[in-house]
Design a protein that fits this description.
By secondary structure, the protein is an alpha+beta fold. The chain is built from six helices and ten strands; from the N terminus they run αββαβββαβββββααα. The protein has two domains: 183 residues, no CATH class; 64 residues. Helix 4 packs parallel to helix 6. It is globular, with a radius of gyration of 20 Å.
Length: 297
């Protein structure tokens, strides 16, 4: 694990020789750079999620090794027709200067994935580039969920503490440890972990590199369009009482920074209106475990 140097993130679609060496370990034939599309995705982190649970640093380190070679699908539906990507490299990293809700150094699992370039994949590549298909969550097996207040395993023993409540000023949450499997990662509309999703890097260029500057400007315009769409969608979901057309006109006049702030406020209200239930609850012993729903984070 590298605490001082971030996992290097290349612009989406940029493929290096080292990328191809790793990708071709999973291909039946030798693929060339123009036959694959690559992107970088944050799978999970150690921050407290919407279920008031969080991974330990050791758990993330183990998951980063387990997820290499794992397929990406849609909405945790374990079907071959939903397979769209595969991870070919994965690392754990600390983000310098960033803390979790509990005051710990922020840590995340960052993966590189590839998609074959073909007629069937052009739509998903367009959705990734436009920022529409972005959020992800992981499906994995976790052995323990420890109460942060009393230390009891919340799956094996009952305790009186409630996740999300504070006891003597300390937030109660489930501490997820001892991973046993990492079997899929999914594109999903509302992941339990707020920061999980596709990420990108800034383009670096010289002042006189006109073509590169044009591409950077185009990316900025795509980002603004994406933020308008996402902010309006968040406002409608939050049921603020303003129609989507009027809300879009209002949002268009805002800066990208203000859109981000407004979107966060809408999402906070939505989380209060529509709380996400825990997906790791296995209190019912008669549940059908064959669908792996207990471990969809």
């Amino acid at each position: 694990m590298n605490k001082n140097k971030d996992f290097e993130i290349s612009p989406a679609g940029t493929v290096t020789d080292s990328d191809m060496e790793l990708i071709n370990k999973y291909a039946r034939k030798q693929l060339s750079k123009d036959e694959v599309y690559t992107f970088t995705v944050v799978l999970c982190d150690n921050d407290v999620d919407r279920d008031y649970e969080h991974f330990t640093a050791d758990t993330l380190e183990k998951l980063s090794q387990m997820f290499v070679g794992v397929t990406g699908i849609y909405d945790h539906e374990p079907s071959a027709k939903n397979q769209i990507a595969r991870i070919y490299d994965c690392k754990c990293e600390f983000v310098e200067g960033k803390k979790t809700a509990l005051g710990e150094d922020y840590m995340r699992v960052v993966a590189k994935a590839y998609i074959p370039v073909c007629d069937a994949s052009r739509e998903i590549i367009a959705l990734l580039d436009s920022g529409i298909r972005k959020e992800v969550s992981v499906g994995c097996g976790i052995e323990k969920c420890i109460c942060s207040i009393c230390g009891a395993d919340m799956r094996e023993h009952s305790c009186t503490h409630i996740k999300g409540e504070k006891y003597s000023g300390k937030l109660c949450c489930g501490v997820l440890s001892d991973p046993t499997d990492a079997y899929e990662w999914s594109f999903t509309a509302v992941p339990a972990q707020r920061k999980a999703g596709v990420i990108k890097s800034f383009l670096r260029y010289d002042d006189d590199d006109y073509e590169t500057m044009k591409r950077a400007a185009a990316q900025s315009e795509r980002f603004k369009s994406y933020m308008i769409l996402e902010t309006v969608k968040a406002g409608v979901t939050a049921q603020i009482g303003i129609g989507s057309e009027l809300l879009e006109k209002m949002v268009c006049s805002l800066s990208a920074e203000d859109m981000i702030k407004l979107k966060a406020l809408f999402e906070e209200k939505s989380s209060q209106l529509f709380p996400v239930r825990s997906q790791l609850d296995i209190t019912g012993k008669d549940k059908d475990i064959s669908v792996n729903s207990e471990y969809s984070i």
